[in-house]
Automatic annotation (TrEMBL):
GO CC, alphabetical: chaperonin-containing T-complex
UniProt entry keywords in alphabetical sequence: ATP-binding, Chaperone, Cytoplasm, Nucleotide-binding
Pfam families, A to Z: Cpn60_TCP1
Name assigned to this protein: T-complex protein 1 subunit delta
CDD domains: TCP1_delta
Entries under InterPro entries matching the protein: Chap_CCT_delta (IPR012717), Chaperone_TCP-1 (IPR017998), Chaperonin_TCP-1_CS (IPR002194), Cpn60/GroEL/TCP-1 (IPR002423), GroEL-like_apical_dom_sf (IPR027409), GROEL-like_equatorial_sf (IPR027413), TCP-1-like_intermed_sf (IPR027410), TCP-1_chaperonin (IPR053374)
Signal peptide residues on this chain, from the entry's feature table: none
PROSITE patterns per the UniProt record, alphabetical: TCP1_1, TCP1_3
UniProt keyword annotation of Chaperone present: yes
Length: 506
């Protein structure tokens, strides 16, 4: 009798030797709940794919894509969502998660081969191709109508900070984007030199030719005692003596700065006391030294690299060899919307450039900055992996067709899973068609037919609302963007498949 009673208990769950409760249905439930949560995010993002999509919402996966490639952040989430949908169906048919995971790994390896085969090599000297890639990236942005201005700016910025012959990557820290409210996006400009948003402190000197620039990290103001002491002055003679000492101390500092030949002085922001006293400013003005104060600590490295100066921590180290040189340092007015300090014509420049982004409000400026960043990342991708691939859903359909062929060479469950992986990728062209107001089913069917006949470059032409050779339309993207999106989406899906339990934390 006890044996008969124990049988049903073993079917649904029971206690193991350690006394912990074991539920056989739980791993499957956890998997499905994880998949449905991730699918919900992907579905929410689907409407933002392509130039006709709504604006973007990013998640952790798209952050990874952003770090690796800088573009394709929406695509990667949409692909992950479609793959999770496939996983859900495969799991419901009783296929083991490990088999699905391993099959997906095989599929992505084959997919990378297919993408590499359909890509076209590109030379960094081919400016037109680089411009097309940057323009395609800007198409789906709010500021897309300014792509004819922003695309060349992005290409020029990257080309100035690298050596095209030897570069294998681009350090985007060398391209400083300065946001300045006022004007329109048409007023954005690329400056070969340094741009500071801080105002010139002494308005008497706003333009210096043949500038010798010093960057100091100490204060030009009277020193304070180490402890909170109070000095009690009993008569005017003592007070006069204190002021004379103060004056002599500051005059000595300013004389040493002048002696080194400095005529433009940048002062780092101080949190302890005022970095520049009125008296020091008065002396600097007399000696015709242009002063820019409140330089942020995080900008120091970029400033030093741009103008070839070194930060000076103490007046004793203020020597001519610590100074940077430039043809011109001047404060320029921006049509009534504030001023900027520009230092141009640096004689020993590190390879850096500055991009001044203008806009009528904060939202526009931030959107323009993000769009320029994406365009810069696209060019960086081409420097990392010098190959281009068609856009407009062409790579995904090509993958779907080739993976279906590949699945026929496999046996058993693997073939089934690889086929499902390929079919899932059709979500990208399907969503592009949907967001462009086309019929997704007939569009994808025609695309599949064209690719099966060997037309690898057939893609969805969003502008004309149909299917055409997407390379002729100059809709291209770096190969790295597509490969990165595919591998990261697959890695994420495989990670979610491995989760079969949740530990509740308090």
């Amino acid at each position: 009798m006890p044996e008969a009673m124990a049988a049903p208990k073993a079917l649904t769950g029971g206690k193991n030797k350690g006394g912990a409760y074991v539920d056989r249905d739980k791993p499957a439930q956890i998997r499905f709940s994880n998949i449905s949560a991730a699918k919900a995010v992907a579905d929410a993002i689907r409407t933002s794919l392509g130039p006709k999509g709504m604006d973007k919402m990013l998640v952790e996966l798209s952050k990874a894509q952003d770090i690796e490639a800088g573009d394709g952040t929406t695509s990667v989430v949409v692909i992950a969502g479609a793959l999770l949908d496939s996983c859900s169906k495969l799991l419901q048919r009783g296929i083991h998660p490990t088999i699905i995971s391993e099959s997906f790994q095989k599929a992505v390896e084959k997919g990378v081969e297919v993408l590499t085969a359909m890509s076209r090599p590109v030379q960094l000297s081919d400016r037109e191709t680089l411009l097309n890639s940057a323009t395609t990236s800007l198409c789906s942005k709010v500021v897309s109508q300014y792509s004819s201005l922003l695309a060349p700016m992005s290409v020029d910025a990257v080309m100035r900070v690298i050596d095209p012959a030897t570069a294998t990557s681009v350090d985007l820290q060398d391209i400083k984007i300065i946001k300045k409210l006022g004007g329109t996006i048409d007023d954005c400009e690329l400056v070969d030199g340094l741009v500071l948003t801080q105002r010139v402190a002494n308005t008497g000197v706003t333009r210096v030719e043949k500038a010798k620039i010093g960057l100091i990290q100490f204060c030009l103001s009277p020193p304070k005692t180490d402890m909170d002491n109070q000095i009690v002055v009993s008569d005017y003679a003592q007070m006069d003596r204190v002021l004379r000492e103060e004056r002599a101390y500051i005059l000595n500092l300013v004389k040493q700065i002048k002696k080194a030949g400095c005529n433009v002085l940048l002062i780092q922001k101080s949190i302890l006391r005022d970095a520049l006293s009125d008296l020091a400013l008065h002396f600097l003005n007399k000696m015709k030294i242009m002063v820019v104060k409140e330089i942020e600590r995080e900008d120091i490295e970029f400033i030093c690299k741009t103008i070839g100066t070194k930060p000076i921590a103490h007046i004793d180290h203020f020597t001519p060899e610590m100074l940077g040189t430039a043809e011109l340092a001047e404060e320029v007015s921006l049509d009534g919307s504030g001023k900027l300090v520009k230092i141009t014509g640096c004689t020993s420049p590190g390879k850096t450039v500055s991009i001044v982004v203008r806009g009528s409000n904060k939202l526009v400026i931030e959107e323009a900055e993000r769009s320029i960043h994406d365009a810069l990342c696209v060019i960086r991708c081409l420097v990392k992996k010098r190959a281009l691939i068609a856009g407009g859903g062409a790579p995904e359909i090509e993958l779907a067709v080739r993976l279906a062929e590949y699945s026929r060479t496999l046996a058993g469950m693997e073939a089934y899973c690889v086929r499902a992986y390929g079919d899932a990728l059709e979500v990208v062209p399907s969503t592009l068609a949907e967001n462009a107001g086309l019929n997704p089913i007939s569009t994808v069917t025609e695309l599949r037919n064209r690719h099966a006949q060997g037309d690898k470059m057939a893609g969805i032409n969003v502008r004309k609302g149909g299917i055409s050779n997407i390379l002729d339309e100059l809709v291209v993207q770096p190969l790295l963007v597509s490969i990165s999106a595919l591998t990261l989406a697959t890695e994420t899906v495989r990670s979610i498949l491995k989760i079969d339990d949740v530990v509740n934390t308090r």
